Amino acid sequence: MKLCVFDDYRVGLVVDQSVVDVTELIADRVDPRDRMTELIERWTQLHDRVRAARSSENRTPLSAVTLRAPIPRPRVIVAAPVNYQKHQAEMGGEGGVYEGASIKTIETYAGFVKASSSIVGPDGAIEVPSADRRIDHEAELGVVIGGVTSRIPHDRALRHVFGYVPLLDITMRGEEDRSFRKSFDSFTPIGPWIVTADEISDPGALDMELRVNGEPRQRASTRDLIYGVPRLIELYSAAMTLRAGDLIATGTPSGVGPLIPGDQVSLKITGVGHLIMRVRARAVAA
Ligand code: MN
Question: Cα(83) to centroid of ligand 1, in Å?
Fold first, then answer.
């Protein structure tokens, strides 16, 4: 199933090129921005009713709704640093993004946390905070956690996945800590929807392609992840308790490059979704 958040934070099931509103299945007391998290939390009870909405006649064309980030405010976003070998190679050494630097991999760095407030959806834009700093795109597979996930071994990890989402880990290059450079507002675009885990037989065999203004920049397969999805869940759940709707950014392949205002970024992950984001200069604070 494909699940989206649209218009006034309503929750929808995507069927073909349309949306069936399933918001009424979710309790009124929940803040609209937490409806999807609530749906994921109560998925065991609600899943049959959401599935049944497939045959509803009451559909709205996707083109007539505004799609938002499918999880508007996850509690935690944990992310994998340098989790593809070819990306390690392009980041350091001669001609690297960090010229001459010795870059290690996830085996050394393990993980970092991004601010939850960096989430943005297809209804928004990636905002460049400063014209004199380099801002890069990083194409990533996002993993959506299904429920309380603590100290889970590798072989049981995939049971804790609710679904998958195209995710961009937008990054300012520089000397500051990763968590600072990657946590600016709008630096974690996700969407256009979540695909439930039952539709993805192997998260370690997904093709992805990122284009900027139509030009291919990143092409890869999740086969080349150094730590695959089960290993990431084992690693992060050993440190912190993850909950329904929390996100894991699995790391980016080679081909990262700068973005400037006016660009359009497109990330397609086969079987998951196609996220398109505009880039603009950050608005002056009110
Ligand atoms: Mn990344």
Answer: 8
Which phi and psi angles does 104 have, rounded to 5°? Answer: -95, -170
* Structure token pair of residue 217: 């920049």
149 touches 76 (CB < 8 A): no
* CA 284 to centroid of ligand 1, rounded, Å: 27
**Ligand 1 centroid, distance to 178 Cα (angstroms):** 10
Which residues are placed with Cβ below 5 angstroms of ligand 1, an ion? Answer: 138, 169, 252
Q: Which amino acid is at 142?
A: G
State pLDDT tens for residues 112-148.
999 999 999 999 999 999 999 999 999 999 999 999 9
Provide the whole-model pTM.
0.97
* Ligand 1 mean position, distance from CA 172 (Å): 11
The dihedral sign for the CA sequence 97, 171, 163, 53: negative
Q: Which of 211, 213, 197, 201 is nearest to 268 (CA)?
A: 211
203-240 tens-digit pLDDT: 999 999 999 999 999 999 999 999 999 999 999 999 99
112 CA → ligand 1 middle, Å? 10
| Residues 79, 75: Cα–Cα separation, whole Å | 13
